[in-house]
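Field: COMPLEX_INPUT
Field: COMPONENT_COUNT = two
Field: RESIDUE_TOTAL = 675
Field: MODE = joint
Values follow.
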Amino acid sequence: MLVSEAIIKCLEAEKTSVVFGVEGYNIEPVCEALKNSSIRYVPMNSEESAGHAAGGCAQMTGKPCVSVCGSGASALKMLAAVAAAYTDCVPLIAITGQVSSDVLGRDVSDEADIIGSVEPFVKHSYLVRNAQDIPRIIKEAFYIASSGRHGPVLIDIPVDIQRQDIEPEFPESVMIRGYNPIQKGNTSQVKRFAQALQKAERPLMIVGGGVFSSNACDEARALSKKLDMPAVSTAGGFSVFPYDDKRFFGCCEPSSTLTDMAIANCDVLIIVGARLWSLPVGIENKTILHIDIDPAEIGKNISADLPLVGDCKYVLSQLSDAVKQCKHASWRKYLDSHRTQPSIGEKLTEEYIFSLLSDVISENAAIVCESAGIKSHAVKSLKIKQGRFISRIGMNGSGFALPTAIGVKASCGENEDREVICICSLRSLCCSFSDMTILASENIPVKLLILKYGEASSVDIKKLSQACGIEYLKISKTEQAQEALTKFAQSGGSVLLEVDIKKQGGKE
Amino acid sequence: MKHTISVLVENHAGVLSRISGLFTRRGFNIDSLAVGVTDDPDISRITIIVTCDEHMTEQVEKQLNKLIEVLKVKTIPDEELIARELMIVKLSADAAARRDILTVAEVMEAKILDITPTTLTLQLADVPQQLERFVQLVEPYGILEIARTGTIALQKGSDTLSFRGKV
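Field: COMPLEX_OUTPUT
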């Protein structure tokens, strides 16, 4: 069997349903084999997009997803997406082609030291030197990417090895002696946690992206319910709690008066799967409990009074079992009294649009949101019930939103009907607008909500949408918003809605 | 302050670059780093000396542990430390200087590796402070070349840092 075919066999064994890639030098054998397989191959328009799309798919499903591309410059272009996956703990498997192993290291055409370049941004990486190792390496890569703290793994495969004929032995299990991620929390530490939580008069939980990574949303909500414990989220953990959960008090990145109030006034703060790189204010003088799967996160940015290393899913249910039901009615009432109805105003602001959007989209919609500015509005005004909010936390580069949304949509199987909405600025769209062609050509319907900030645009988005086979809608006045957003939500295919955003308090 | 960290790693190509990359990236300063294979040919021991505070040492240990190819990490407490470094030094030594140098070598328990009409090459294996002292003593004669291994260390007593994992 050819190595390229063995690779596909391995991917199939890992239940890979879709791979995103860009064909290029030194990866043809793998791409050819992919096209002749049961796996759906989605050709993207840039390597970075391929990486982001696979990242989106992996983030949505919590399972590894693969991107492939060629060697040299091609592979280097994928690194930004690998780095984004690393900072956001996304189980991305990047497979890159490499020059033939007999000329490796001689600076031949299309050679770049990818293993060296990617080292700071991967959980692990492999340069395949022996064709026979392929099945083991792929098995290990999937295991490493999706166990412990999730993260990307890169596999660099010289093109001559892809063409070799081997008799592959497919391993049943993985044994990496230096890698034994912890799942369950230490029992006596769980007891101490339970005691601290039980004694708390004003407990508060902060949920981060780790709750999604370990698929522990139910467990987080259950613990909050059993202890009657208010919760806030980081940007990465936004949508762990449905917006209308009476114990949920909003996103603390960026902070609001309400989340500041909650953090400053709680007596026991339990941080679940969050690295809190931007320290919330008022975190002093309270008992801090920190749950993380990565021991290195504990004590790195915030010093915890009680640390607990383990997978949130296990640890939270261990905690739920260890605590008795209690009530914190007055503490919740106190926080409730500080809830404010966001005034959405009359202007075409982000808040206005997001607020109307929340009312028209389906309950389980996935919303991919560009980072930085727009995200901070989104986490304040989007009302997400059973849906999912996806954003990049660690790497705020432009141009990730559309390919990520493509990945999210492609991750939904045939039977899963999920509305996928991509929210980004016009500038961000311009960084990846070539991917707009994918929506129609690959039949991956995504709804684009493009915010325009009065900048002069070099592109006619209307014509661009039409050229890509995407329905075009526009809102330039408040009165048009309701109708256009309803159309946007009802559309069954790909649609682009351009909105002229007016700055809050700015001129009309 | 200085901390001595002993690390057992898979004896693979690329492990050392991952480790040194980690130190550079996270701003940990390495004073010394020495690598050698152990009694198990698949496992190498790296001895790293870093200057940092307690909190930083804890982060160094944790970050090292995150590398897939790192098997065990331990900071050896100072009072338990057995540390040695090997140095080879080539001195300019004519007939007049030779006797004086040999006296210093004898006192410091350095070994003579090579002798020529104009040079003397000596070897010294000792704690790093003794190596420094030796360098001071022979410097006036003219040091032509020095090669040092970096410090290697084990812990005193019966405690060991070993890896007997399932393979």
